[in-house]
Specification:
Number of helices: 0
Oligomer: single chain
Helix content: under 10%
């Protein structure tokens, strides 16, 4: 089970930190991923962190978002300088496990 939190409504330029807590699964057997889906758009992979702690990001968030882990069952997405186009529901994923998502809305 994966549970996301930390979303909210913020103004452009603000920051948010999303959290993903995993329970009941062997967390670190798989890469951990953050996806997002905006209304009317396909779900896209935003950031990932491998079991070797290698990270990668979609071009649109490079330099603004940082994915990290600090505990066997926790993952975070630090999002800085948020833009209106970052508005979406953000999902945590590992293997076949998905969270229910947390809403991020960036609007002035």
């Amino acid at each position: 089970k994966l549970v996301e939190s930390g979303g909210g409504l913020v103004q452009p330029g603000a920051s948010l930190r999303l959290s993903c807590i995993a329970s009941g699964i062997t967390y670190r057997l798989y890469a951990m991923n953050w996806y997002r889906q905006a209304p009317g758009k396909q779900r896209e992979l935003v950031a990932l962190i491998t079991t070797d702690n290698i990270t990668d990001y979609v071009d649109s968030v490079k330099g603004r978002f940082t994915v990290s882990t600090d505990a066997p069952n926790s993952m975070y997405l630090q999002m800085n300088n948020l833009k209106p186009e970052d508005t979406a529901t953000y999902y945590c994923n590992s293997g076949n496990n998905w969270g229910r998502g947390t809403q991020v809305t960036v609007s002035s």
